[in-house]
Amino acid sequence: MEFLLRLPAPFRFALRRPSAALAPAFIVLPIALWIAAFGNWPLWRALADTHTPGSTPHSWFFLLGFGVLLVAGNAALLMLFAWRWTLKPVATLLLLFTAFGAYFMLTYGIAIDASMLTNVLQTDVREAGDLLSWRMPAVVLALAGPPLWWTWRQPVARPTPLRLLVQNTGWLILFLGVAVASVLATFQEFSSTMRNQPQLRYLINPLNTVYALGRIATQPLRMDTRTLLPFGRDAHLGASYAGQTKPPLLVLVVGETGRSGNFGLNGYARATTPQLSARNDLASASNAWACGTSTATAVPCMFSGLGKKDYEARKSNQENLLDVLDHAGLAVLWLDNQSGCKGVCDRVPSASTTTSPDPTWCKGGECLDPIMLEGLDARLAALPEEKRARGTVLVLHQMGSHGPAYARRSAPELKKFTPECHSNALQECSQEEVVNAYDNSIVQTDAFLGATLHWLEGKQAEFQPAMIYVADHGESLGENNIYLHGLPYSIAPDVQKHVPWITWLSPAMQARSGASTACLQKEMATRRISQDDYFHSVLGLLNVQTTTYQAANDLFAPCRTNG
User: Fold this and answer.
1) What's the CA dihedral at 253, 258, 259, 262 to 10 degrees?
2) For a 10 Å CB count at each end of the chain, is N or C smaller?
3) Do the beta carbons of residue 111 and residue 491 sit within 8 Å?
4) Is the pTM of this model over 0.85?
5) Beta carbons of 444 and 263 less than 8 angstroms apart
6) Same domain assignment for residues 64 and 209
7) Is residue 72 domain-shared with residue 157, that is, in the same domain?
């Protein structure tokens, strides 16, 4: 007490516990004001780019109306939980959502929607650790600390339940009315802004997070997640398997965070793919596009066989490419050096590098991709012999260029471009340093693909090998202050959707499939392709017959037709 008496009067007032109990609405309103003013700084920054305060009377009026909308909207949300046992816990959650959301939006330029949160929820400890930095607790404490301290010090009035219900209902109606009035007062400007800048809706904090969580929580109501529909159960092996002397061996490399434009093989000014560029037996697509901007979306979509539009509109889950290959009688194995297969490999044999880390490739709790080639012969031999005799499909899921810790994705001897960004708070580095670290991870992918091709070439006495490499999605490296990936597809920049697609066919596989590398090189040089084509191209290459196959989406079909 003596210590408090020696403090200046403003500090004594701030530290003094309030004596009068406040009605819930008078706790809700200051919290909503704080969230609107400080927790929505990314939104205000984006709005300022097109509505500079003071530039016109309309700009001031619109920004004021938008601010009133934010306050009223957040206050209305809090009033739904303005009860004795829920007010402060829910306010705490919203303030933390706001603080963490603001941090990630400010740091990486991301937007928060259901897809982004799904990606976060499905990440593993390694990937989550890459996002941690000293800036995170500092920003979260600055944004959430003061209002939390104030909130938990306030005594809350406790009227009778009926009176509280009447009061809360009245305040809720008032806040909703103010929100509607603010929209109507600026309707023309508001509708124009939302139409021309749709990304703003994903920056309205924390309503963006609450809405996204609601979408995830209610997904079982919109889609039957318990039912797995059969798909391609009629799959069988085509005529090329009759009397074969060597079975096919196809390696599907699922890349992680690959930017097509940063691959030297695709014309990038830097030599990021020295091994691949030195070969003349590869077909590389320069116009290939992902069906999602995150692993959690793109990988299941790519393997689904539905195409992007139908995959997003599906009402239940169904079997995928790996199931169809299994139905046809081929041996299938998914080998993961990432955070899992996102449900794709649930019904086929799978393994993870985390179960047998190798000190040569694994340091700091994670492994570089070449570890997947260690012991691969033994993994291949462990698959059912009768299926291997027909053919084998191995899926290698990379860690690739997963950010933001790009510097950890390449071995020291492969770091061609320096200086690198070693911080996971990418804004602390220059864009040159960020790009250097990312490009070095592409050099590592080049080395891994080169080693994979070398392994496959050594299998030509036993198999007819082939390899298809496709990245799940691209990446933003600071362009327009946007980093990483996962933006909603409709507003995501092309660098998050434009992906590399590389195909290698051994001479034996070319003869077997009827598709020559020379033809593929011409076909893939200009043709716009997407991950919608992946399912059908794999089936076509392997001559797996099924009614789910569509020749129009088979990249190899024109070359089989034209020779």
Assistant:
1) -80
2) N
3) yes
4) yes
5) no
6) yes
7) yes
168: in domain: yes
SS3 51: coil
How is 10-36 classified by DSSP, letter by letter? HHHHHHSPP-SPBPHHHHHHHHHHHII
- What letter does residue 293 receive in the DSSP assignment? S
Q: Are residues 12 and 136 in the same domain?
A: yes
Using DSSP's 3-state secondary structure scheme, residue 492 falls into: coil
CATH number of 432's domain:
3.40.720.10
Q: How far apart are CA 433 and CA 415, in angstroms?
A: 12
Q: Are residues 360 and 477 in the same domain?
A: yes
**413 to each of 222, 233, 280, 312, how far by Cα in Å?**
50, 47, 25, 42
What SS3 class is residue 405? coil
Is 355 contained in some domain?
yes
Judgement on whether residues 287 and 425 belong to the same structural domain of the protein: yes
How far does CA 33 lie from the centroid of its chain?
Answer: 32
Task: Tell which residue, 79, 74, 82, has the closest CA to residue 101.
Answer: 74
Flag whether 8 is in a domain.
yes
> Which amino acid is located at 81 in the chain?
F
Handedness of CA 128, 130, 134, 140 (dihedral sign): negative
Tokens representing 461? 């006495």
Q: Are 27 and 160 in contact (CB under 8 A)?
A: no
Radius of gyration of the chain (CA): 28
How many CA atoms does the CB half-sphere of 381 hold within 13 Å?
5
Q: What is the pLDDT along the chain (563 residues), one digit of tens a residue?
A: 454 455 454 344 444 566 678 889 999 999 999 999 999 998 888 888 776 655 555 677 888 889 999 999 999 999 999 998 899 999 999 999 999 999 988 888 888 888 778 777 766 666 666 676 778 889 999 999 999 999 999 998 888 889 999 999 999 999 999 999 998 888 878 877 887 778 888 888 898 889 888 888 888 777 887 889 999 999 999 999 998 999 999 999 999 999 999 999 999 999 999 999 999 999 999 999 999 999 999 999 999 999 999 999 999 999 999 999 999 999 999 999 988 899 999 999 999 988 777 788 888 778 999 999 999 999 999 999 999 999 999 999 999 999 899 999 999 999 999 999 998 888 889 999 999 999 999 999 999 999 999 999 999 999 999 999 999 999 999 998 899 998 899 889 999 999 999 999 999 999 999 999 999 999 998 899 999 999 999 999 999 999 999 999 999 999 986 54
Q: What would the DSSP string read from start to end of 392-427?
A: EEEEEE--TT-SS-GGGGS-GGG--S-SPP--SSGG
Q: Are residues 384 and 336 in the same domain?
A: yes
Residues 261 and 145 in one domain: no
Contact 399, 364 (CB under 8 A): no
Contacts for 101 with CB less than 8 Å, ≥ 6 apart: 39, 112, 205, 206, 208, 209
Q: Are residues 391 and 515 in the same domain?
A: yes
C-alpha dist (Å) from residue 90 to 78, 97, 147, 151, 383: 8, 10, 13, 11, 51
Q: How many distinct structural domains can be found in the chain? A: 2
| List of residues 6+ apart from 316 with CB closer than 8 A | 223, 224, 225, 227, 228, 229
> Tokens 């960020």 — which residue?
434
User: 14: which 2 tokens?
Assistant: 């701030």
